[in-house]
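Q: What would this complex look like in 3D?
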Amino acid sequence: MIKNSQTTLSCILVILFGFVLFYVGTDGFRAYTAETARLYKLMEQNPTLPHVTLEDSNSRTYPISDLEDKYLFITFMYTNCGTVCPILEMNMGQVFNLLPEEYIGEDIVFLSISFDPERDDPATLAEYKSHFYNADGETWRMARIEDEEELDQLLETFGVIVIPEGNGDFGHNSAFYLVDRNGVLIDVMDYTKMDEAAERVISILESEKGA
Amino acid sequence: MNQFIYGLILFIVLALPPVSNLLESIMIVHMHMQMPLLVVAGFFMGHYFQLRFPEFFQRWNENGIPGILLFTIIMIYWMIPRTMDEALTMQSVQLFKFISLPFFAGVPLRDSWPKLSLRGKNILITGFTLMFIGMGLLYVLSPEQLCNNYLLVEQITLGWGFITMAICMVIYLAYKTFINEADYE
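A: Here is my prediction, written as structure tokens for the whole assembly.
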């Protein structure tokens, strides 16, 4: 009888252990993929934009801090991408459309950053930009970061993982990144939910105006 | 004792950085080869622990159920997409993988399996079959990349690996159900 109760006790201990293991391993049953875990962590850390130098589709070179007095709506892509990036950029264009015109360029700048600087020179970016109706090169800019160290640092800070596939393509995670006027990352949003992203941006900008 | 040595050698070989890096570079090999081999290593080493601490296993795992529960929990844990990613990016998770799979899954499986009734064994295999079908469908059908360190195409391969394993287990269960072994003896 005593032996039996010990086995029951060990059953309970094992289940408790399992519960704690899963609780810790999934951030309290919330994050089952590294991507969701990354987003939760990013949201808690609120990292700031590292210093990077952009070269945009108009061949202008400037530090990203030049844009920092405005909110930045950022995506990461490469022009040769045939799968996710066109959708990502199209969806970005929809968010652009959903925002009231008064904010565009005044309070917020859209920025598509290429992580393939070797091929995405200003001419290529300009050509790619032309596929997106709203991308005017001013209020929605496309740019590359030529300095590899700077690019890597930005990708790491924002948790963007890029895996070269060997044939010139990359596997990568995609999201909308929102950076505030102080260069602090304040939100990472699902790139397939344009309405939600637009609402979020509008509510932030409106509350700022109200204040 | 021999078994322990074989298990230990297997464990050490798997833990060698070039070996583990190679196995982890391919998603399906990571989950369906490296991880099971770690369990196998623990399974072999388990014999030594059984001989060394018979009292412990007798007392705390009398009917095999706690051990098999622990085994199942550890196996499910390592099927979560996130844990595979983190094993690659975080040293502590990698260390936990190399400890938990042999010692918390392999060893208890060794001790528990013979203690389970036939029914218990069939329930366990059926459970794993259902789980593998579920995981297989998840990895095959998910439009999103579930692991940041592996490409979508590898994920689909892994999903089919799961489904293949499930099919094998279904065949085994059918064989156990429909074939009377005594007829062939």
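A: To summarize the key features: DSSP finds six helices and nine strands in chain A. Chain A has two domains: 2-30, 44-210.
Q: Very helpful, thank you.
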